[in-house]
Amino acid sequence: xxxxxxxxxxxxxxxxxxxxxxxxYLTFYRFLIVWVPLKYWKRxxxxxxxxxxxxxxxxxxxxxxxxxxxxxxxxxxxxxxxxQCLDRALTYSTxxxxxxxxxxxxxxxxxxxxxxxxxxxxxxxxxxxxxxYQPQTHYTVVGWYAWPA
Length: 149
Description:
By secondary structure, this protein is an alpha+beta fold. Helix content is 46%, strand content 22%. The protein has one domain (2-147).
């Protein structure tokens, strides 16, 4: 399945520039996460502690959001570093903003053991849960950031 979609990206000309754009955003956000202190780049998250509306997406917009989600997932599997949920979520949110969609990035924490915490990031646009959403794992949301359309 994954290789079929990669083949579609390579063979389908309209998706190829989107794949390169996704790769550039993944690289940019990974660089920020690893090398730049959070206080200097947290504005890229969006508007803090605000959410976008949970309205239903039209069928055409839903298909476009799903296509963006698949491109981010496929490209992030083939980068030379281990792509984390935060750079995927920020990339997906940025691509949605470029397409004119509003989105909300959620940051959550989960306590695995008394000494170990697990952090996770995921994105919602309209009523569609995009990159990183895991309903089976219960994360306590500690921050949410909105990108209005």
